[in-house]
Amino acid sequence: MSDGTTDDLKGRAKEAAGDLTGDRDLKNEGKVDRASGSVKDKVDDTADKVKDLLHKD
Fold it and tell me: How is the chain split into domains, by residue range?
């Protein structure tokens, strides 16, 4: 599992917990974690594409 996926899952759990308990800070923290996971995934995808281009035969 990638770091981005881990952050996304962690964020979803925090959002759900914040929603259930009415804790806005926890819910917002979850949203930040999800966004961070999305960025990490995009960076990883871009890095993979660049590596593929550089190692093309």
Answer: 3-54
